[in-house]
């Protein structure tokens, strides 16, 4: 077993999730993510009460529900870690397990061994400090405007929505987050956003972009999408789900130092110096749009202004 993966697995299970010797662990994988899942199983072996290792078929898209036996195991396990090709973050099964039963969950959509190994290099102390600073500034704000060199100019409200800190600290009952960690995020109130988003790094369901995707947002809904073949692909994915998939679901700011984007949203959305917007499901972050898709798009070097005060200037955090 690759030592880098075992190191990352120990950090994920014991530093992030706080797995205890008396607890049951559930690991859910699919055929693509077996290597990461195997590292997690090896790290957990002998260090918790029991390990349940489930392999399922890949879901069709991010946000699709797992099979019922997997959902039942999620609700019954103290701790779960979900390295799967398609995201289980924004599913009813994960919400039920964490909110109703107080289970702890780490999701790792589209994880690769290379990306997972980066968790072993993260300075969690620095990441936590940076993430909390961004989250606090957003939490104290009312109106947010985001602009970028590529053409993004979007204004939206925070309303009464909670701002979440993805610091990788998931040891309390009911906690849920991505690993690797690194973002402050929330669900803008439906109907509050107006302007343009230009996604110029990568897009969930597509990967690294050959052409930026321009999205016109009116009253919180994407009403026009342009961007060559990649824009057509995004529009097609959303149309396949239905009109509610075009709802702006999330705004987030990355806090993890990453050398470059890789086309994998799990890592790309955490890149310090970027922000991201998602369309589709926002139920897990206090929204009301229940739809089986959640697609994030990454914007490079944003300037983020909160109630007239600049929080981030062209991707650099204002001290």
Description:
With 319 residues, the protein is an alpha+beta fold. The protein folds into two domains: 117 residues, Thermophilic metalloprotease-like (3-Layer(aba) Sandwich); 195 residues, no CATH class. 26% of the residues lie in helices and 29% in strands. An eight-stranded antiparallel beta sheet has the order 14-13-10-6-5-18-19-20, covered by helices on one side. Strands 2-1-3-4-8 form a five-stranded parallel beta sheet, with helices on both faces. It has a five-stranded antiparallel beta sheet with strand order 7-9-15-16-17. The termini are far apart. The mean pLDDT is 96.
Number of strands: 20
Mean pLDDT: 96
Query: Between the first and last Cα atoms, what is the distance in angstroms?
Result: 42 Å
Main sheet: strands, sense, barrel: 8 strands, antiparallel
Count of helices? 8
Question: How would the blueprint of this fold be written?
Answer:
Layout lengths: L2 H14 L7 E6 L4 H11 L5 E6 L12 H9 L2 E4 L9 H9 L3 E4 L5 H5 L6 H16 L3 E5 L5 E5 L6 E3 L9 E3 L4 E4 L7 E6 L2 E2 L3 E2 L4 E6 L2 E6 L1 H14 L6 E7 L10 H4 L5 E7 L13 E7 L2 E4 L2 E5 L2 E2 L2
Parallel strand pairs: 1-2, 1-3, 3-4, 4-8
Antiparallel strand pairs: 5-6, 5-18, 6-10, 7-9, 9-15, 10-13, 11-12, 13-14, 15-16, 16-17, 18-19, 19-20
């Amino acid at each position: 077993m690759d030592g880098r993966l075992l190191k990352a697995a120990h950090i994920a299970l014991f530093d992030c999730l706080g797995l205890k010797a008396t607890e049951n662990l559930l690991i859910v994988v699919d055929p693509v993510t077996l290597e990461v899942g195997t590292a997690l199983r090896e790290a957990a072996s002998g260090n918790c009460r029991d390990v349940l290792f489930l392999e399922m078929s890949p879901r069709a898209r991010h946000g699709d529900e797992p099979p019922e036996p997997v959902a039942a195991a999620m609700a019954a396990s103290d701790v779960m870690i979900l390295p799967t090709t398609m995201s289980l973050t924004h599913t009813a099964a994960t919400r039920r397990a964490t909110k109703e039963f107080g289970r702890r969950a780490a999701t790792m959509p589209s994880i690769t061994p290379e990306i997972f190994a980066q968790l072993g290099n993260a300075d969690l102390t620095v990441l936590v400090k940076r993430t909390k600073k961004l989250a606090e500034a957003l939490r104290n704000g009312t109106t947010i405007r985001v602009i970028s060199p590529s053409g993004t100019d979007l204004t939206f409200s925070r309303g009464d929505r909670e701002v979440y800190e993805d610091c990788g600290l998931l040891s309390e009952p009911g906690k849920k987050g991505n690993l690797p960690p690194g973002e402050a995020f929330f669900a803008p109130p439906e109907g509050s956003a107006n302007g343009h988003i230009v996604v110029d790094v990568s897009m969930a369901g597509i990967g690294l972009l050959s052409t930026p995707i321009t999205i016109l947002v009116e009253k919180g809904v994407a009403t026009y999408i342009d961007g060559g073949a990649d824009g057509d692909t995004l529009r097609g994915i959303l149309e396949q789900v239905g009109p509610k998939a075009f709802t702006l679901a999330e705004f987030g700011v990355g806090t993890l130092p990453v050398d470059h984007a890789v086309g994998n949203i799990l890592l790309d959305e955490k890149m310090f110096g970027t922000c991201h917007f998602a369309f589709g499901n926002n139920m897990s972050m206090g929204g009301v749009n229940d739809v089986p898709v959640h697609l994030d798009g990454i914007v490079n070097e944003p300037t983020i202004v909160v109630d007239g005060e600049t929080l981030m200037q062209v991707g650099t955090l204002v001290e």
